[in-house]
Amino acid sequence: MILIPKPQPGEYAPYTLTYINRLPDDGQVLKYLRENLEATKTFIGAFPAEKLSTPCAPGEWTIKEILVHVSDTERIFAYRALRFARGDTTELSGFEQNEYVPVSCANERDIVSIWRSTPPCGWRPVRCLKVLGRRCSPEQASHPKTA
């Protein structure tokens, strides 16, 4: 089993602390990613199809848009992980999530299509982290210019 310690202050952007604090400090990040994927699929599967494309309030994202956003974010972070692993120190660009969502056409897609087109949601990042975890020290995996 590969254990990944929680990041230390200075190794992450301050806005991510909310998410980091939710993670147990036992190094089993990959296990929690796998479990979360299955729990998410089960949870989403309980909703009627029309609920997946209906926002809770005007201007809010739908469940489908949230899922596509998570998928987009996984792809972006997997790319960043590759750059860290290769020692690329050029500045990382950010992305504007509120511009990505409307052009994702998530609400015109069925849920099966969304699950199939995700990386698939959670799987590739888990695999990527396993590989990086074997080959990189924390120093190699940190990036001085994270956007």
Give a concise summary.
The protein contains eight helices and no strands. With 147 residues, the chain is mainly α.
**What is the CA-CA span between the terminal residues?**
31 Å
Which CATH class of the domain at 46-141? Mainly Alpha
Hey, roughly how much beta strand do the residues contain? under 5%
How many alpha or pi helices?
A: 8
Coarse shape: globular
What is the CATH topology assignment of the domain at 46-141? Four Helix Bundle (Hemerythrin (Met), subunit A)
Structural class: mainly alpha
How would a crystallographer describe the biggest sheet? none
The CATH architecture name of the domain at 46-141 reads Up-down Bundle
Order of helices and strands: HHHHHHHH
What do we call the CATH homologous superfamily of the domain at 46-141? dinb family like domain
Round the mean pLDDT to the nearest integer and report it.
82
Please characterize this protein's 3D structure.
- The protein is an all-alpha fold and 147 residues long.
- The chain has a domain of 96 residues: Four Helix Bundle (Hemerythrin (Met), subunit A) (Up-down Bundle), CATH 1.20.120.450.
- The protein contains eight helices and no strands.
- The longest helix has 23 residues.
- The mean pLDDT is 82.
